[in-house]
């Protein structure tokens, strides 16, 4: 399976490379673009300020350009938090998308979004300061209306970016469970 994996607002940190290596060890081809061109951040606030400085349109352009060389083969789009929003946007606009794996984040959905039973899996902390229950309920319904086949996995007590061992949010048990379920999801897309 070809996967493009987008980093969080912290930038392309070691945890993203480790995740890509885990996916490669399971037999997948993983591409890890750097939308921040080498910049990484120690806090969410610094990363968000950098995102605002670049602008959403430019970030989407970078994401599209990063995925384009692989999209003709049918990609699985994946991302962490902010990267999940990039992955979601691309997957909903790529008729060849094979799947969407969201880790810790979602994005708004255009009213005209339409996919043909796109498999989508979301892993999110419960509660999550960036993904409220009300928002996730709305997101789930809107993704369903768009034609996606969505499953949501919630992790009580975990912090927002609970899969990154270098952050205070890290929750080893939730992270391992996430990867076990996510690898099963990716395997199911190859059948």
Shape: globular
> What quaternary form is this?
single chain
Largest sheet: 6 strands, parallel
| Class from helix and strand fractions | alpha/beta
Short précis:
The protein is an alpha/beta fold and 191 residues long.
Secondary-structure map with pairings?
Elements (H helix, E strand, L loop, with lengths): L1 E5 L7 H12 L3 E3 L12 H11 L1 H16 L3 E6 L1 H11 L6 E5 L15 E8 L6 H14 L2 E8 L15 H18 L2
Parallel strand pairs: 1-2, 1-3, 3-4, 4-5, 5-6
Describe the fold and architecture.
Helix content is 43%, strand content 18%. With 191 residues, it is α/β, with parallel strands linked by helices. It has one domain: Rossmann fold (3-Layer(aba) Sandwich), CATH 3.40.50.1820. Strands 2-1-3-4-5-6 form a 6-stranded parallel β-sheet, with helices on both faces. The mean pLDDT is 96.
Task: Pick out its properties.
191 residues, alpha/beta, Rossmann fold, six-stranded parallel beta sheet, 6 strands
């Amino acid at each position: 399976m070809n996967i493009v994996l987008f980093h969080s607002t912290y930038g392309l940190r070691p945890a993203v490379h480790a995740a890509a290596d885990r996916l490669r060890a399971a037999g997948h081809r993983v591409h890890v673009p750097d939308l921040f061109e080498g910049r990484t951040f120690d806090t969410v606030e610094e990363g968000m300020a950098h995102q605002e400085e670049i602008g959403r349109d430019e970030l989407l352009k970078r994401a599209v350009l990063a995925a384009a060389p692989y999209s003709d083969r049918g990609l699985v789009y994946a991302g962490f938090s902010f990267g999940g929003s990039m992955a979601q946007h691309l997957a909903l606009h790529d008729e060849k998308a094979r799947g969407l794996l969201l880790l810790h984040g979602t994005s708004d959905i255009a009213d005209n979004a339409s996919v043909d039973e796109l498999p989508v899996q979301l892993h999110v902390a419960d509660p999550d300061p960036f993904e409220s229950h009300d928002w996730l309920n709305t997101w789930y319904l809107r993704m369903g209306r768009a034609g996606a086949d969505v499953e949501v996995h919630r992790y009580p007590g975990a912090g927002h970016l609970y899969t990154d061992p270098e952050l205070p949010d890290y929750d080893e048990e939730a992270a391992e469970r996430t990867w076990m379920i996510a690898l099963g999801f990716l395997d199911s897309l190859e059948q």
